[in-house]
Amino acid sequence: MAQLRLTDFFSRTKAVTGAPVKRGGGGRRLKAALAGPPEEEEEGAPVGLSPHPPPPPGSPRTPARGGSPVLRGLAGRKRSRREMEAEPPVGARPGEPSGKSARKKLELPRDAEPGPPVAVGNCWGRGCAASPGAEALKRGPALTVCPLPTQEDLAGLRCRLQRVKMLAQLAQLPPIPAWASTDLRSRLEQVRQLELRIREKKEGSGAAPGARPSGDTGAAAPAAEAGEKAPAYQRFHTLAQDQPPGLTLPYKFKVLAEMFRSVDTIAGMLFNRAETITFAKVKQGVQDMMRKQFDERHVGQIKAVYPTSYRLRQEKNIPTFGNSVKKSDYQLTLEPVLGEEEKVDGRPHLSASRLLERRKEFNRNLVNIVKQHHKAFLAALSPPMVVPEEKLTRWHPRFNVDEVPDISPAELPQPPREDRLTTAQEVLSTARGMLTPKMEKALANLALRTAEAGAGEPVVSKAPSPASTSSALKGVSQALLERIRAKEAQKLQALMTRDPQQEERLAMLGRLPAMARILRNVFVAEKKQALTMEMACARMAESYDAQMPPGEMEKHLRLFAELLPDWVGIHTIRTDTYIKLDKGKDLGLITERLTKAAKEAEAL
């Protein structure tokens, strides 16, 4: 029988629907293929007492190669290799790779395949998993498994319970001692005394005459900005400027001057149209023009530099035209201050000439502010220097212009606000009797610390310390040092009071020694005793290392004729101007004379 089952696949491959099989008789026709499934057990029969005992487990069989003959049609014909490769194996399971195998695999019966183990909760009695009727239990009622709590869950519950107990202990506040009210009163009395001391100190510093020069900016920017280091292009802005030395302004002052120009331009347009000038309109316009942030602090700085430029007010019921500001809210408004004579058709008018005058006035005020800091710097030198402000044409070489402190903004009008609490003392006095004693004590401590910090703040002097004698100068006569310092101070004072024309002449004198060699080479190359001024200027401009227009070069040639008339001569014949050079002069002596003339002019 086993042999029949193992070799039964030969008859399956040759079988044809409705055709006799070659080998064997009619009794051997595919019994296993035509045999029906086994009868199922009755539903009412108990386990193990079924009238039909389960059949014995079948022997393993080899799966058929060609599949079902009904679907294949005629199975006797020879199949091609493509059809054989395209057909999936009969016993292949989904998810497994299908490939051509040299050996057939035995296919076990379906009831003999290993299945998942039977759960404990599904067993009604002991040994049910090993009983032959275990399959019948699968159709029985399913029971839900209730997992027992593990040790990790119990540990988590214990931890949460312990945490709840700790929070309950922390919630129990200790009773307030009887001496708390007495201590609170004493601390409040200390706060009041410290506030009185601060007010007296402020009044005394404000009443002192000459404490600050008029128009002084205050000293430093807010603490938030003082702690931040400015970028390099701001700290060394003056050094990077390609312009002759003069009364240059710091970078932040130049930015403020440009902001004032933008504010004046926008305010002039709105004012001439009889439109209310609000800070919101000016802010948007200035930021669009400068691509920089503009806020109320800059308006305060403009007010501090040029107090008579604008009249500032807080107004409400101004049409906003859909802005985020409500009509009933207060807004900061600006109004240019104009004279009675600046009227057109009976109404004040801000003209372009007036805008230019206001801009120049603002720049003069900025220069005056820097002059005050420069004056303090000169007074702190050793020996001190005094230079009249009307004769000052440039800053001291050691005066760092970009380190001038920023302008402290003037106070702007604020909208009327009632019930506004700003300090801990005000909160404490307003909410007295409404807070718990613990909260009142905390507010009192905060007010006390704030008052102590304000009273104990030291006043830092901004005057630089006098120069001390270096260790390298020990043993040198003090009188000699004083003479050297006095001579240096005299030279620096002459440098700071030099006019621009004299400065330009000194620059030209410094270029003459190098130009003398080029001028002689031009005459030697041309092999002429005289050249026209246009030709000489063109040749000199081509040979000089720095680019210079012919007009500037002509000034240098005329300066040659002024300083060295025996070497260079300029002659005008009819409409042309000629320059003549004595090529027999020694060039070394000429250079020495020019250098000496430059030193003498610099010493003046």
TrEMBL record:
Keyword hit for Transmembrane: no
Region of interest (Disordered), residue spans: 18-116, 199-227
Cellular component per GO, a single term: nucleus
Keywords, sorted A to Z: Cell cycle
Residue ranges constituting the CDT1 Geminin-binding domain according to the UniProt record: 249-414
Low complexity biased stretches: 205-227
Key word Cell cycle present: yes
Superkingdom in the source lineage: Eukaryota
Ranges of biased composition (kind: Pro residues): 51-60
Family the entry assigns: Belongs to the Cdt1 family.
This protein's name: CDT1 factor
